[in-house]
Specification:
110 residues; Glutaredoxin; 4 helices
Length: 110
């Protein structure tokens, strides 16, 4: 996700609501594609407005193409990766989505 990505900003509250709904069964880990210099002025305020604290990272990519390929990601924002309890990736969701899409993906992973 990134603060400069309208679909990311639009779907972010749905992801937070999903985390809250499945508290104890779901971990929301976010990785921002924002620039490091925007961490304090854009990223942290955005996360605070949405009640997101820990489990948030800033992507510092030296090999963006390799990173994307390893994840099975085409580089489009937003991307949501769904993992099951065993740590196996079960779905890659690219592009902006709605709450029902995320809920269905989480249910399949549980």
């Amino acid at each position: 996700w990134a603060t400069w990505c309208p679909p990311c900003v639009e779907e972010f509250p749905d992801l937070v609501a999903l985390r809250d709904k499945h508290a104890g069964d779901l971990v929301l880990l976010t990785v921002s594609g924002d620039e490091a210099e925007d961490l304090d002025t854009k990223v942290k305020p955005f996360l605070a407005r949405h009640g997101v604290g820990g489990n948030t990272y800033l992507a510092q990519l030296t090999d963006e193409a390799g990173f994307a390929k390893e994840l099975g990601w085409n580089g489009q924002y937003p991307v949501t990766l769904i993992y099951n309890r065993a740590g196996e990736r079960v779905q890659v969701i690219e592009g902006g989505q709605d709450a029902a899409t995320f809920e269905a993906a989480v249910q399949r992973a549980m």
